[in-house]
Amino acid sequence: MNKVIFFALLILGIGIVGVVAVTFFQSSFSKVEIHKEERVEKDKVEDIEINTSSADVEVVPSESDEIAILLDGKINKDLEDKYKFEVGHSHKKLNINFILDENTIGIKLGSVQDTTLQVKVPNKVLNDLQITTSSGDISIDRLKANEIIVKSTSGDQSIIGSEAGDHIALSSTSGSIKTKENTVNTAEFVTTSGKIDTEHLSSKNAVFETSSGDIVFNGEQLKSDMEFTTSSGDVAINFSQTPESVKVDFKGSSGEPNISVDGLLFEDKSENSAVGVKGNGEYEVKVRTSSGDLTLE
Q1: What is the mean pLDDT of the chain?
Q2: pLDDT recorded at residue 106
Q3: What angle do CA 113, 118, 122 make, to 5 degrees?
Q4: Which one of 19, 181, 239, 263 is most buried, counting C-beta atoms within 10 A?
């Protein structure tokens, strides 16, 4: 009889724990709508700095006289009070933060990956734009600035139709980097395991670096020095117009070169290296790989 009562109480206890657990997790992972908006006059801003944890970031053009900051999406109910949305403005600098409050005590379950932070920038040239995020994607569309710096951990980056009078630096750990039709003075694109895909980049100097990701570059004409570095990823470079004056310098450990440039005279060529010059070698294409191959045409 005592054993029957014991097992009955045990089953009842397990049932209560199960109900409590289900209720807890349903509450933690249920989502609520989030909508926030701030505006700042464009003439009061020269620099913009954006910091987020996992929300996506979009920087887009606007016809307004104000810079609009819009936070929209869904967030897990358990995280609603654990994230801080702050917009600060001081000395011509606009600071935008949507980050986890590190002072919050308790279990942090769920995510904010269904949330987008959009910044609408009027037609003006910024001095400096900096964006930092952990797992959120970043996209920049038709922005003009003196300097653009973007950093992410696992989020992808997309920069389209933008101008940087001085320098653009894009870096990501495992996310990919994609750029198209950008005009800059100097460029530096770095990722660890993500792919770098660049199309129609106009610059005086460009550096591309990745560990295990591939690098793809498509352009019309060669107009600058370019440097590509990868460990196990391949490098593919294509120009729609054959370069008139170029020096190609490739070295790989086990990677192989496949170079098809009309008029290129090879000074040295082996299974894992190649040096060739056309014209007076005005622009240099330098490629370093470990096991990655090079395709240049």
Answers
A1: 88
A2: 43
A3: 165
A4: 239
How many Cβ atoms are within 10 Å of 207's Cβ, its own excluded?
A: 17
3-class SS shares of the chain: helix, strand, coil, % to 5: 10, 60, 30
Q: Identify the bridge partners of residue 50 per DSSP, sorted by sequence position.
A: 96, 131
Domain limits, the chain: 30-127
DSSP code at position 142: S
CA–CA distance, 246 with 26 (Å, rounded to integer): 62
Rounded to 10 degrees, the C-alpha dihedral 7/9/15/20 comes to: -150
For 142, left (φ over 0), alpha (ψ -120 to 50), or beta?
Answer: left
Asked if the model's pLDDT at residue 138 lies above 80, the reply is yes
Token code pair at residue 82: 């654990």
Query: What is the arithmetic mean of pLDDT over 172-188?
Result: 96
Per-residue model confidence as pLDDT tens digits over 11-69: 655 656 544 444 444 444 578 899 999 999 999 999 999 999 889 999 999 999 999 99
What is the pairing mode between strands 144-152 and 138-141?
unpaired
Distance between CA atoms of residues 215 and 195, nearest Å: 6
- Give tens-digit pLDDT for 244-262: 999 999 999 998 999 999 9
CA-based angle 217:155:27, to the nearest 5?
A: 160
Q: Could you tell me which of 97, 68, 98 has the C-alpha nearest to residue 80?
A: 98
